[in-house]
Specification:
This protein is of the alpha/beta class and 369 residues long. Helices cover 46% and strands 16% of the residues. It has an eight-stranded parallel beta barrel, surrounded by six helices. The protein has a two-stranded antiparallel sheet with strand order 5-6. Strand 3, helix 4 and strand 4 form a beta-alpha-beta unit. It is globular, with a radius of gyration of 20 Å.
């Protein structure tokens, strides 16, 4: 089997955060989970930032990851993604640098523009400007990590001899990842020499986009090794294929719906788009058309999840085999397993993580070949 790094994606959805115990207790439960994930051999631990969302409710990623840094010692940590338009880039550069020190150089910096319109509406941010805002923010963040001072006169941010402190622990700075969906975003990441991450498209679409990314990267004539590629998928492992499907199927069909009332029952709601919450459902844009297809399919059929590689369900042997087939098709370097499915019992999630760590990860190690 090919060598792979295996990571874990941990989400905190509205269903868990609004129907469970105190947030403090939920955070503690997940902190204990990442402690165990480290012992099981997961290479990195990722969360995702959202603001006022039913999908994820980590609203201050650096605060939570600082706690993770103090509870672990080897596993790498990061948000995949920080929603850049929601942050002052100088403050974010300093936060990440400080987190890099608190973790002794274990930070992975995942970046993205955000795709849910209602989150921007609630903060008074122009959804149509998020791409330009994010590109400007990244320029500032890289300057803050590589220069003694930053003077910048942009459209969205201005700094006059700003003195960013501290400098990152890692030299020259934490790895920068771009969470990408559109072809333009893949091309931007390739030209900037950023690592690339994906989590929504079907396997065949991810394979096409990553091939294009590698082509643009090669044409850009960067020095050094090609950046890494990352794919997140929902994973549920149980002792048998039958048990894994029985446990996962009813929750998968609700995975994109459970907790929607948290947003739906508000004055702003989802903005213009009920399906995606991305401002419109303009199917003339290829990546939005594909997203519409995927989200509809995920809500209607267990088989759609499986056939498109969006979920990997089964016994340890079955999951390892499916991962090998998927990695051969797509060619990613890091596989990020999301063991949490909306509404699933936490103990089943933990059992899945343990089976994956004890039986699937070792199958891909050099010593297993």
């Amino acid at each position: 089997m090919a060598d792979l790094e295996f990571d874990m994606w941990d989400r905190f959805g509205a269903h868990e955060m609004t129907t469970g115990p105190l947030a403090a207790d939920i955070y503690e439960r997940h902190l204990q989970m990442v402690e165990e994930a480290e012992t099981l051999g997961y290479g990195s631990y990722f969360i995702i930032e959202h603001q006022g969302s039913f999908i994820g409710q980590i609203t201050a990623p650096s605060v939570y990851l600082a706690a993770v840094a103090q509870r672990t010692s080897t596993i790498r940590i990061g948000a995949m993604i920080y929603q850049l338009p929601f942050h002052n880039p100088m403050r974010l550069a300093q936060e990440i640098a400080m987190l890099d020190h608190l973790s002794r150089g274990r930070v992975e910096f995942g970046t993205g523009i955000g795709v849910h319109e209602h989150e921007f509406l609630r903060w008074g941010l122009d959804f149509s400007q998020r791409q330009a805002m994010s590109e400007e923010a990244l320029e500032i963040i890289e300057q803050a990590w590589n220069q003694e001072s930053v003077t910048y006169n942009g459209k969205y941010w201005q700094f006059d001899d700003a003195l960013p402190l501290p400098r990152p622990f890692q030299d020259p700075h934490p790895p920068i990842w771009a969470g990408a969906h559109s072809i333009r975003a893949f091309e931007f990441a390739a030209r900037k020499n950023y690592h690339i991450a994906q989590n929504i498209d079907a396997d065949v679409v991810v394979a096409e986009k990553l091939a294009h990314y590698r082509k643009v990267w090669a044409e850009s004539r960067h020095q050094g090794l090609m950046p890494r590629s990352f794919l997140m998928r929902t994973v549920h492992v149980a002792e048998t294929d039958e048990k894994a499907r029985e446990e996962a199927e009813p929750h998968l069909l609700n995975d994109r719906r459970l907790g929607r009332e948290f947003v739906d029952n508000t004055r702003v709601g989802f903005g213009k788009s009920k399906l995606l919450g991305v401002g419109n459902d303009d199917e003339s844009m290829p990546h939005l058309k594909e997203r519409v297809r995927v989200f509809k399919g995920m809500a209607s059929s267990y088989d759609f999840w499986i056939e498109n590689g969006l979920a990997i369900i089964g016994s340890p042997d079955t999951v390892a085999r499916k991962l090998e087939e998927q990695q051969t098709l797509i060619g990613y370097d890091l596989f990020c397993a999301s063991h949490g499915i909306a509404g699933m019992d936490f103990e089943k999630e933990m059992n899945s993580m343990r089976l994956f760590g004890k039986h699937v990860i070792p199958a891909f190690s050099k010593s297993a070949r």
